[in-house]
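Notebook, p. 212. Picked up where the previous page left off. The plan for this session was modest: take the two constructs that came back from the sequencing core last week, fold each one, and keep the raw output in the notebook itself so nobody has to go hunting through shared drives later. Recording the first one now, exactly as returned: residue sequence, then the structure token string.
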Amino acid sequence: VKEIMKTMTWIKLKFAMGVTTAILLAGGAVTVALSGATTNNDDLSPTEIVKQVQDKYASLSSYSDTGKTIVEMGNIKASTTFDIRLGRSGVYRVEWAQMTAGRTVKGAAWFAGDGDFLQIEGPGSFKYSKMQTRQETLNAASGLSGMVAQAIPTLFFNESGSNFLSTSFLKQNDEKIGGTECYVLTRNITPYKTTFWIGQKDSLVHQIKREVDNTDNSPAFTPMSDSSIKETLQKMNEPVTPEAVAKMKSDMEQLQKKAQKLQQLHSIQSAISIETHENISVNKTMSKADFVHELP
């Protein structure tokens, strides 16, 4: 549980570190596929497309999909499969599995009516925690899952992270993702670049590509203040003592050192993540059982 919360506090700083954390947890290697370009043959502006996306997710009574994320950092490649289920009453379940040769780290974030929960399960370890809010749970799950708990849930629930679609985008040539004609929108905020593939007919996100260049030049890790650590301990229902604060601060510093060592070891100067959503189903009647995550 402590490792979950400690990771949560700094994965939000930057995507590159979020990816590093995922690889620290899972390691590993796999490969993947992308898309084919077509022509851009309509006059919708990026702002109009984004508005259609926001309106579409706001109109849904339920949403589910499966998919995969591929991460490349230097000479490291990692793969994550995921399953997302969202309900308008506030219920949700996001499950993922980061796979390597002979090694799998699984995780889940869910609310089925009796509390928000976060779980991480790896070889010889199991961490499980009841969280305080949906946003806190999904924020933690986003970094731990390689970001798969970020975009779709925040759009569906209109959380405070969903405004990432409200900034300026450039429209590229249309492309197909899994046979679906998509608008392609890109956003550049140095050193970050994000690309969205949005279905022309369904206004849903079918693929997201996140890129970070010059990872070593990205903003430095800022140590947590004592007040932030105390707040985190309170959320974990842990005793807030000087010893506990000192231990968490030390653990966070060690986590940063591990990430930096990983970057140096594998010559990581950039990071790319490709998140593809498949088997999308909307407005389907779902029961509480669809959102319950079975503990091992």
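Okay, moving on. Second construct, recorded in the same format:
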Amino acid sequence: TAGTLTWTAPGMERQDEGPRRFELTHATTVQAGIDACRSAHLQGRPLALAFVGCGLSEDPNGRDAVARLWSVAPDLEVVMCGDSPGTLEDPARHPLGRRDQLLVLQKPFEPLEAWYLASTLTQKWRLRQQAERQISGLQSDLLERIQELEEANAKLAQEKTSRASAQTELYQTHKLEAVGRLAAGLAHEINTPMQYIASNLRFVHDSVGGLLELVGLYRQVLTAGGEDAAPAALTQRLQTAEAALDLDFVLKRGPQALRDALQGVERATDTVRAMQEFSHPGSRSKTMVTLER
């Protein structure tokens, strides 16, 4: 019958615990036992132990009852009780398998035996539930810790990416500063030869006009029949043109101006070539380049 059993075995009294109390449920059929087990589970008060009698007409060996009970309550402790050894099978060869939740008890048995089994197996069930809760809590803590580590790793990865981006920007800034200094030096190196190239070419340009005019006058003299026959006015014009052109200075300075201009062109060309070699040395290995040539 259903009810509450309170009993203390002789010699087992403990001041800190008091009498053991067991809530009992009784079922006369397998289905009634299944329903009672399911109802207790739905109420949040699952059964810890079931004594299953063998020898019933509907389930002589108790296999079906135990299997169905475990399908509803996998953690249920079970004691199979039989009237004779023939009704009980060796658990090692039992179809239910080697499970540490199954014990066999042969009838008749003393109440003390049932009490010890109930006390031990319910305590075992409670410890199992407690261990599972602790394991579940540890798993929850572990998952939470893993999530925290993943978030920390993601944050570190983001910081690493941000740091790499900042380093790249800093590198680009330094690179631009270096390019700016290089450009300033390059502009100075090119500007100096270009200045005297322009100055010498301007001198040549200005002198060419006077030389062309003087050559035209000489041709007029030749056309007039030579120097002896040259008119006095034409001779005067030649002398005036030579003085205005400063022919002696032009003849002396003209070739030097052209040489200086060519030298300036070569220097500017060498500077550009050195920059090309610096930018594209044509080799994967580092190459020493002299910019001051």
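Notes on construct two before I forget. The two ends are 114 Å apart (CA to CA).
Flagging for discussion at group meeting.
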